[in-house]
């Protein structure tokens, strides 16, 4: 089974093209919307709390996890809690380290603001970081739509959960499974250096796409192709 973990503050629709390709390739897929996103009620209190909840619904073995950005943070917690259930991991546009104090404070500020004002200011505040300045209009529209489907409580809780996440370097250095790392060379939110570091620690294969942060939406051919090649390699090596 392939587990697709979405970015913040989007939802599982960001993987709709990939889901179609995986479905056509005969893969079993799980693509949850986190609490508070994609119309889901409730909120994420902590990444570990949500990871525990998710593990109750996932198979006991054979999972390939794919996480982009916040999805990567969540995948790191899942791999710490239940490494034996995974046979492969794909990290895209994400990082192992914790936030700087300034980044953490920005999250808490956003959490406070979104509870007061609602989610309407988020597209304007976040779009450029997520997809760059010159993304095609259809991508801008679909990212905006997904952001506006998040609830203020969900956004605030996710920011607090991310602010409290631990450093994952040690967890990742112990991984015994094949890893693919997908980076965007124009990602201003996650610098290429952080992705190179991640690939080195996990002994993963690094694929660089010429994109901003949401690399799967900005270069679906490159992203989905790398994912399908990785899955095929897992099959042929019997992992
Ligand atoms: C994401 O795309 O999930 C966010 O940029 C993650 C974050 O805020 O660190």
Automatic annotation (TrEMBL):
It holds the Pfam family Abhydrolase_1. Residues 2-218 form the AB hydrolase-1 domain. GO terms for molecular function: hydrolase activity. Coiled coil: none annotated. Keywords: Hydrolase. GO terms for cellular component: membrane. The keyword Transmembrane helix does not apply. This is Hydrolase. It comes from Deinococcus cellulosilyticus (strain DSM 18568 / NBRC 106333 / KACC 11606 / 5516J-15).
């Amino acid at each position: 089974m392939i587990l697709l973990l979405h970015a913040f503050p989007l939802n599982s629709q960001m993987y709709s093209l990939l889901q179609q390709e995986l479905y056509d390739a005969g893969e079993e897929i799980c693509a949850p919307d986190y609490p508070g996103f994609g119309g889901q009620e409730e909120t994420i209190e902590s990444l570990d709390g949500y990871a525990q909840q998710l593990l109750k619904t996932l198979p006991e073995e054979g999972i390939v996890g794919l996480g982009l950005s916040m999805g990567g943070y969540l995948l790191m917690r899942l791999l710490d809690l239940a490494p034996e259930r995974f046979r492969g991991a794909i990290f895209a546009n994400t990082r192992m380290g914790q936030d700087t104090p300034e980044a953490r404070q920005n999250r808490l500020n956003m959490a406070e603001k979104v509870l007061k004002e609602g989610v309407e200011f988020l597209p304007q505040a976040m779009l450029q970081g997520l997809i760059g300045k010159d993304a095609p209009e259809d991508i801008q529209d679909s990212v905006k739509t997904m952001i506006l489907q998040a609830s203020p409580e969900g956004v605030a809780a996710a920011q607090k959960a991310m602010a409290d996440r631990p450093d994952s370097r040690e967890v990742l250095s112990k991984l015994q499974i094949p890893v693919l790392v997908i980076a965007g060379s124009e990602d201003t939110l996650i610098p290429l250096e952080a992705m190179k570091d991640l690939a080195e620690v996990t002994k993963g294969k690094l694929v660089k796409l010429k994109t901003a942060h949401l690399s799967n939406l900005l270069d679906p051919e490159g992203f989905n192709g790398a994912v399908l090649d990785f899955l095929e390699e897992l099959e042929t090596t019997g992992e």
